[in-house]
Amino acid sequence: VAWMHFEQSAILTVANHVITRNPRISVSHDKHKTWFLHISNIQEEDKGRYMCQINTVTAKTTYGYLHVVVPPNIDDSLSSSDVIVREGANVTLSCHATGSPPPVIKWKRDDIAKININKTHAVREGANVTLSCHATGSPPPVIKWKRDDIAKININKTHAVSEFEGPVLEMTRISRLDMGAYLCIASNNVPPTVSKRIKVSVDLSEFEGPVLEMTRISRLDMGAYLCIASNNVPPTVSKRIKVSVDCKYI
């Protein structure tokens, strides 16, 4: 009987003999009827497919897959530290976490405030937003709205359209899926067609992703931000990053 680890292309044991130099590997059997491969102090590198081969006249094989889960860990050396930013500037906070499965990283304020991604047209998550576009011309222009990406416009939670016609675009119960640039396009068959780009940002109670970018920082953005890494393998870990805003002007 031989044991192999496919991911490492390694023969681990043959009969009672351990072939690999890995000291954590051992083998045992129950009167040569049932053979057991033992791996002590499991590491992430041990994950993968294992094969047990019985060397009879016609070789018989069976396979098994070892899943190794690793709790999340935040790498401070690759993550942001406390930062001081001049008011009106941009700030980028990064959080690097390892684990298996790969952790999901979320950002939250360490108080009841929302995270302000940018200040272009910021709306609180769950609120309504109204965008207006006024155009003149003869004949009177037709105004249409489109997203500046392939996403649809969510008029409400049950109605989404590729484009919307009218000078006023109203959207209810805004979510993070509604963030992005919206194009107001005015045309009246007299060239050229003109457009205006309006960026909509949603103030979030939490933001998902390893990098948090905030533009045009103000004193309202001062405070502690929590980077939280989780992958359903306890414990969830977090890092606290303090953002200070320099409001002094020369």
List the helices and strands and how they pair.
Blueprint: E1 2-5, E2 10-14, E3 17-18, E4 25-30, E5 34-39, E6 48-54, E7 60-66, E8 70-74, E9 83-86, E10 91-94, E11 97-100, E12 104-109, E13 122-124, E14 129-132, E15 142-147, E16 153-156, E17 159-161, E18 163-165, E19 168-171, E20 180-187, E21 194-203, E22 206-208, E23 211-214, E24 223-230, E25 237-246
Parallel strand pairs: 9-25, 13-21
Antiparallel strand pairs: 1-2, 1-6, 2-3, 4-5, 6-7, 8-11, 10-23, 12-22, 12-24, 14-19, 15-18, 15-20, 16-17, 20-21, 24-25
Can you give a write-up of this model?
Its main location: membrane. Residues 1-62, 102-195 form the Ig-like domain. It is found in: Cell membrane. Keywords: Cell membrane, Disulfide bond, Glycoprotein, Immunoglobulin domain, Membrane, Repeat, Signal. It comes from Diaphorina citri. This protein is mainly β and 250 residues long. The chain has 3 domains: 2-66, Immunoglobulins (Immunoglobulin-like, Sandwich), CATH 2.60.40.10; 70-114 and 205-249, Immunoglobulin-like, CATH 2.60.40.10; 123-203, Immunoglobulins (Immunoglobulin-like, Sandwich). 0% of the residues lie in helices and 52% in strands. It contains no helices and 25 strands. A 5-stranded antiparallel sheet has the order 3-2-1-6-7, with no helix packed on it. Strands 9-25-24-12-22 form a 5-stranded mixed sheet, with no helix packed on it. Strand 20 and strand 21 (194-203) form a beta hairpin. It is elongated and about 95 Å long. It starts with a strand and ends with a strand. The relative contact order is 0.21. The model has no long low-confidence stretch (mean pLDDT 90).
